[in-house]
Amino acid sequence: METLENQRTFWNTWNADNREDRISEVSRRQAEVVTGWLDEQPGRNLDILEVGCGTGWFCPQLSRYGRVIGTDLSDDVLRRAQARWPGVGFIAGDFATMPFADASFDVIVSLEVLSHVADQEAFVARIAQLLRPGGLLLLATQNRTVLSTHCKIPPPAPGQLRNWVDRWQLDALLRPHFNVENLVSVTPIAHKGVRHILAGRRLNALLGPAVGHAWRTIMERRDWGWTLMARARKPK
């Protein structure tokens, strides 16, 4: 059983090594989808919480839509984030025990956090508790179907929880608390087999921008994306 301190140590190191100086293609695409969904919402005066914000890299983009608080276990990383982006409020600690008032937020964003929590049902229920009626959860998580079958992923490191879900498991987690408006896969990636060729950069370059975009769209619709993304609304 991974302790909270083990998890904090792992994520401080992982975020410092992987997110402070660069943002991956996968993360950039997740941010693009989330901001696209937010662009469809009326108003720019929202109370927004990002759960598991890592280095805080996405919070400045979210600030275009309102007031932003970012939370993460990575206390060392968040201290640097607060100095870098003083207009965002960062809070380090365990999201499950943070003393936010019920119905405090219009939007909660969570990118690739769900698979790293021990109790996923409680995690989703806590998010629903903190959202106002009609509020939005914008969530990204690893696509179990793709990562477990078509990708080469090292085993979890000490302090790293891993519990990937497929689209049906994700839908089942969300449905008790939310109306699921969108559930899509994005960023087709594969490291082995024929999908390695079909989802590879070389084929995409050969197809050219227009055809390559159409082909990526087809792969995403077939659930070949690394990421599953959900837009879910709390009932009023």
Q: Could you characterize what this model shows?
A:
There is one protein chain. The chain is an alpha/beta fold and 236 residues long. It has one domain: Vaccinia Virus protein VP39 (Rossmann fold), CATH 3.40.50. It contains 9 helices and 7 strands. It has helices at residues 4-18, 25-39, 59-62, 75-84, 120-130, 144-150, 167-174, 193-198, 201-221, and strands spanning 46-51, 66-72, 89-92, 105-111, 131-142, 179-188, 225-233. A 7-stranded mixed beta sheet has the order 3-2-1-4-5-7-6, with helices on both faces. Strand 2 (66-72), helix 4 (75-84) and strand 3 (89-92) form a beta-alpha-beta unit. It is globular and about 50 Å long.
Q: Which key phrases capture this entry?
A:
alpha/beta; globular; 7 strands; 236 residues; Rossmann fold
Radius of gyration: 18 Å
Main structural class: alpha/beta
Number of domains: 1
Helix content: 40-55%
The CATH architecture: 3-Layer(aba) Sandwich
CATH homology-level superfamily: Vaccinia Virus protein VP39
N-end to C-end Cα span = 38 Å
Outline the biggest β-sheet. 7 strands, mixed
Order of strands across the biggest sheet?
3-2-1-4-5-7-6
CATH class categorisation: Alpha Beta
Uncertain stretches: none
The SSE order reads HHEHEHEEHEHHEHHE
Indicate the mean pLDDT. 94
| SS elements, strand count | 7
Tertiary shape: globular
Provide the CATH topology. Answer: Rossmann fold
Number of alpha- plus pi-helical segments: 9
Detail the topology: elements first, then pairings.
Blueprint: H1 4-18, H2 25-39, E1 46-51, H3 59-62, E2 66-72, H4 75-84, E3 89-92, E4 105-111, H5 120-130, E5 131-142, H6 144-150, H7 167-174, E6 179-188, H8 193-198, H9 201-221, E7 225-233
